[in-house]
Specification:
The complex is a heterodimer of chains A (about 650) and B (about 290). With about 650 residues, chain A is of the alpha+beta class. Helix content of chain A is about 20%, strand content about 35%. The relative contact order of chain A is 0.13. Chain B is of the alpha/beta class and about 290 residues long. Chain B is built from nine helices and ten strands. The chains are: A alpha+beta (about 650), B alpha/beta (about 290). The interface of A and B includes residues 27, 28, 34, 46 and 621 of A.
């Protein structure tokens, strides 16, 4: 230990006048007594070897001397020597990726790295600037370059790790920029477990140091997950990898919509990757959740990193998203249908008979634009400008009067205004019993729909090219409503899963709907919405998020979004002793220099505590019986 | 100082002695001394049972009533009250003032002695001498004079008890009952004086009178005590431990005096002014068999 300001130690000489003041006679209250006869001997007994005897038994004097010593030593700034990673200004890059939540270092790697960062701040010179970049999926400065150590410590204490992969490229770019901003004189210190992808990392100005965090990399992880629909039923694939150095036995459990489906024992050697398949699974939409758990009878935790021991995937099977568009080339119709989110569109050209050939049952909705209908097709049908057919009689053309259209209230005409739609010619259709008119003019249907058995049919009785409907807002509204009626919503929501830290894009809610995203713990998530209405958010937690679409009529639709941590980069926990940044190797070290941690604050605090003790001792005769710690007898300053 | 009611009550009490006895000759008391003195002292009326040889026939012839002739050395007990009137005795407020307390004790003794036919004398001690003396008093008619003398005594000077008691023994050689009323705060102590009293044959009673704050000092803190008699200054830091030490010192001092008195047959009574003075007479002195 040394004193950073030893010149102030001379203040310890103030103890001499303090002692002298105690040696001086105190002011005594004069009291007249009948006789001092009996007091004589007592005075003698109590005043042997005065004044030194008075000094010997004076608690207040002792406390005041201790206060003086604490203050003088504090002013002299005692400090203990510590290894210092750098001198001058520093920029700390604190790894906040998912792997830093590993618990091989208690309580976890991130807490250890944060403590190391605070320790580095404590060893810096007072006038040195320090900044901290929190390196997660979206890196940023949590402590801008500053000399305020208190604020820096507070910001570090509030920092938390993410569940995603760290964007080191952006983080290093930020740090390099800040370093250049102070003339490149800052030392960059990376506190990480070394899980840094070396690709395209920028060169860094100044000195770079690396502090390795973590002790070992014993980890079993789910490294692959997929589900698909097969002819014999759905199939699930799970990949499991042992990143540790010891064999591991575990149980792989598969749940479907919360119920256990299967469980199997796995045994993996160090570095082994196992692929597990589950076949003949239910062919219906649902959430598959896979879990790695300790083998039966095992008492220890499976590994030191829990985030990659479970994953989920949404399997969508009951989709009405497959559309077969039969058209000879209607730009407006083709563009609209293809732009509809969540619909898989296949276009087909008519055959010589002006019909779409046989295509099996692989499509949910058949859209025919002026084409005939093959009898062997049973898919739901959206028929534009139908020719004569067996489903309903088609009469001659007529010219609808503009402004005379009537829109019948119906979910299929929701938000439809049909203002100033001009139609050159429409076919007269005798309304079949199974259908209802949705839009009509002059008593003749322009749009009608209905069901024949299980088959839903919607019809536009005019050629789109004979109207300005494709140029109106009602065009996408009408088709969205009809497609929704015919095949279910084209939700456009992600199926499968996404990794934590990766952006999720959701289609814009349809008119009248509001979209909410809930995190796995049920808390609402703030999302951003573009001008086109597309919603974007970044999930940072591992788990199942829920998307809620609230319709104006009270209708509520919800969808899950599975967010996992399936990343070899994060699951490979073995701490690295060396990093490679832009071709430069950086080894882990604590630094060659010596820094000092000051103890001034402790001494000043001790002085204040002693001050309080001194007050209590001085006031104790007045406190009297209320004094909680009664001595053998009431005492004043002597003991 | 003492009202009529109290005087009448006190007149029913008598002083008792152990060492001093009247002679065989009739009289109120018996003296230790043998033989008779020819020194005529007084007459008193004959009561059945008296020795008829002592009847003064001349008085009988003149008055047709028998009277006995009394002589000096035989009967009447000489009771001496030595009242310490030094400044230290003028301590305490109201009835707790030591001098006032002592006056009342002395007055009570005077009433009892005079009512019992004893000769009584009060001497005021100041410094190293007897500052005032009431003269020899006898008979009940002298009660007022005795009380007035006591009332007129005021505190002054320091205390030199041994020297004062020694001066007393020079003046009063005839043994009697000597009752010392004092706080015993003496510059020259009291043992030498008491020893002289004892060696002269006096029956001595020491009534040691102290005030409440002399027994239980009420002060604390950094103090400067000034002696009321001598003006001596003592700087003392008083705390509970110091008070305890003072009380131990006081107890040891009184124990020493008590021990000294016991060895010489001197009766010693330690009393204090915060008990009623009557209690000292009716309880404490009766227990000592000085009063009956």
């Amino acid at each position: 230990m040394k004193f950073l300001s030893p010149s102030l130690l001379w203040l310890a000489g103030l103890s001499i006048p303090i002692v002298i003041l105690y040696l001086l006679r105190v002011r005594r209250e004069p009291i007249r007594v009948s006789s001092v006869f009996l007091w004589d001997k007592i005075v003698l007994e109590n005043w042997v070897d005065t004044p030194w005897q008075r000094l010997k038994r004076n608690l207040l004097l002792l406390i005041q001397l201790l206060i003086l010593m604490a203050l003088v030593l504090g002013l002299a700034r005692p400090a203990i020597a510590l290894p210092k990673p750098a001198s001058g200004s520093v920029i700390l890059l604190l790894d906040a990726s998912a792997s830093m939540q590993a618990t091989d270092v208690l309580p976890n790697r991130f807490a250890a790295a944060r403590a190391e960062a605070i320790s580095i701040l404590d060893t810096l010179d007072q006038d040195a600037q320090a900044g901290v970049v929190l390196v997660g999926p979206e890196p940023g400065f949590i402590v801008p370059m500053t000399t305020d150590r208190t604020g820096a410590r507070a910001a570090l204490s509030a920092a938390t790790p993410s569940s995603g992969t760290a964007d080191w490229k952006t983080a290093l770019s930020l740090a390099a920029g800040a370093a250049r901003g102070i003339g490149g004189l800052a030392t960059l210190i990376i506190l990480s477990d070394g899980g840094i992808r070396n690709d395209s990392l920028p060169a860094l100005p100044g000195e770079v140091r690396y502090v390795s965090i973590g002790r070992h990399g014993e980890n079993l992880a789910i490294t692959g997950l997929a589900v698909r629909r097969a002819p014999a039923g759905s199939e699930l694939f799970v990949g499991v990898t042992n990143y540790g150095s010891r064999p591991v036995r575990a149980v792989l459990a598969v749940d479907f919509d919360g119920s256990l489906l299967t469980a199997q024992q796995l045994e993996l050697q160090p570095g082994e990757n196992v692929r597990a398949f589950e076949k003949n699974l239910p062919v219906r939409s649902g959430l598959y959740t896979v879990r790695l758990e300790p083998a039966a009878g095992a008492s220890d935790p499976l590994d030191v990193f829990d985030l990659d021991n479970r994953a989920a995937i949404w399997h969508q099977t009951e989709t009405s998203n497959r559309i077969l568009l039969g058209s000879e080339g209607n730009y407006f119709l083709e563009a609209l249908i293809n732009a509809m989110p969540g619909y898989a569109v296949t276009q087909a050209l008519p055959d010589d008979s002006n019909r779409i050939g046989s295509f099996g049952d692989d499509f949910d909705i058949l859209i025919l634009d002026g084409l005939g209908l093959s009898e062997n097709i049973s898919a739901n049908l959206l028929w534009v400008n139908p020719p004569e057919n067996a489903l309903f009689p088609v009469g001659p053309l007529f010219t609808p009067q503009a402004g005379n259209a009537v829109v019948h209230p119906d979910p299929r005409t929701e938000f439809l205004a049909w203002n100033n739609i001009n139609i050159l010619a429409a076919k007269t259709v005798e309304m079949p019993d199974w259908a209802a008119s949705l839009v009509e003019t002059d008593g003749r249907a322009l749009v009608f729909a209905g069901e024949i058995g299980d088959r839903k049919i919607a019809v536009l009785t005019f050629d789109l090219r004979d109207s300005d409907l494709p140029l109106q807002v009602d065009f996408p509204v009408l088709f969205a409503n009809l497609l929704d009626y015919l095949g279910g919503p084209g939700d456009g929501l992600p199926t499968g899963f996404t990794n934590a830290g990766e952006a999720v894009v959701l289609p814009a809610p349809i008119a009248g709907e509001t979209l909410h995203v809930l995190s796995p713990d049920g808390a609402p998530l703030a999302v951003s919405q573009s001008d086109s209405g597309v919603v974007r958010f970044i999930p940072f937690q591992v788990g199942v998020y829920r998307v809620e679409l609230h319709g104006a009529n009270g209708r509520l639709r919800t969808y899950p979004i599975a967010v996992n941590l399936i990343s070899a980069e994060e699951s490979s926990l073995e701490p690295r002793e060396e990093l490679s940044i832009a071709g430069t190797a950086v080894r882990s070290s604590t630094g060659d220099e010596t820094g000092y941690r000051e103890l001034t604050g402790w001494l000043i605090g001790a002085a204040f505590i002693l001050l309080l003790v001194e007050w209590l001792v001085y006031q104790r005769p007045q406190i009297g019986d209320r004094w909680p710690f009664r001595a053998k007898q009431r005492l004043d300053t002597r003991f | 100082m003492l009202d009529e009611r109290i005087i009448r009550k006190l007149q029913k009490y008598r002083l008792e002695t152990r060492k001093v006895r009247a002679a065989v000759m009739q009289g109120e008391r018996r003296s230790k001394k043998r033989g008779l003195s020819n020194e005529f002292a007084d007459f008193r009326a004959y009561v059945p049972g008296d020795d008829i040889r002592r009847i003064d026939w001349n008085i009988y012839a003149r008055h047709n009533r028998p009277f006995l002739r009394l002589y000096e050395d035989e009967q009447n007990l000489e009771v001496h009250v030595l009242l310490d009137t030094s400044i230290s005795m003028d301590w305490g407020e109201g009835p707790e003032n030591k001098l006032d307390f002592s006056r009342k004790i002395g007055g009570a003794i005077a009433v009892m002695a005079l009512a019992g036919g004893d000769r009584f004398q009060i001497s005021a001690i100041q410094g190293d001498r007897i500052a005032a003396n009431s003269g020899s008093l006898s008979g009940r008619k002298s009660t007022r004079r005795a009380l007035a003398f006591l009332q007129n005594q005021s505190a002054a000077g320091e205390t030199m008890l041994s020297a004062a008691l020694s001066a007393f023994t020079v003046q009063k050689r005839r043994p009697g009952l000597v009752i010392l009323l004092s706080d015993l705060f003496s510059q020259d102590g009291s043992e030498e004086g008491l020893r002289q009293l004892d060696s002269q044959g006096h029956e001595t009673v020491v009534v040691h009178i102290l005030a409440k704050d002399e027994l239980e000092p009420p002060w604390s803190g950094e103090l400067k005590f000034e002696d009321a008699e001598t003006g001596a200054i003592r700087e003392v830091t008083v705390n509970p431990q110091v008070v305890s030490a003072y009380q131990r010192r006081l107890a040891a001092w009184q124990a020493g005096i008590r021990r000294f008195c016991r060895h010489r047959g001197i009766q010693y009574l330690a009393t204090h002014t915060h008990q009623p003075w009557e209690t000292t007479i009716t309880r404490d002195l009766r227990r000592m068999r000085l009063v009956r």
